[in-house]
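Risk register update: the risk of archive-format incompatibility is retired. Evidence:
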Amino acid sequence: MAKRKEDEPPKGAPAWQSTFADLMNLLLCFFVLLFSMSTVDAQKFEMIAASFNQTFSIFTAGATAIGDGILISNGVSQLNELDQYINSTGKMDNGQTVSEDVASAQEAIEKAKIEESEELAEKIQEAVDESNMSQDIDIEFTAQYVQLTLKGALLFDSGKTELKEAALPVLNQVGVMLERYAQSTIEIEGHTDNVPMSGAKYSNNDELSSGRALSVFNYLMQNTTLNPALVKHSGRGEYVPVADNSTPEGRTMNRRVEIKIYNSLSSY
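Archived output:
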């Protein structure tokens, strides 16, 4: 049976190449026309060319640029300098310009946050001093919140999550202060030292710190009129120490419960 012979391809260049070449010519003419209509500052162009020449060595053969790694190192350096320049001109990371009015407003908001937290901290400190609890509660504040730190030895026995009887009067006073001054979110955090748990109900410090925060939360919910939806509790374990865990004193300081009262201007 005879086999069909394959057709010979047409001679000359394929038709698509002619169409593509015409398109390229039209685009070239278009950009030449645009360039002819534009205004070029010759002095600035020479300055830019000189800058590229000095930095990348690409206008005078550029033989050492890539071989010696100069092009890459200079490029990284220039990217860092560009980032610094953009920040110095008042632009954010996304390139949007921060106006002086916006920057001034942000500064005013931050100042207002600090002032509100400081005022709240002073009121709580006064209430703590009047109740003779300054030895049991430490008070600090940031632009976001006022923090009450209760010593773990006051609240719990070692390895336990049940509140001690001696701690209840202190928590009652804390509840009164929260009802009086808290206007936003309240966060209860439990913290421990780094001594591993052994032979106890809880297998690790994460569980222990969570159980202690939950105990304080439950007591406050049962003995105050605080809105539970605005009160959070969490266990932070041993991961946020405030002192050196290698000493008994440091471990005692790390065993604590923190209550953060966020101010009304907080972004939390």
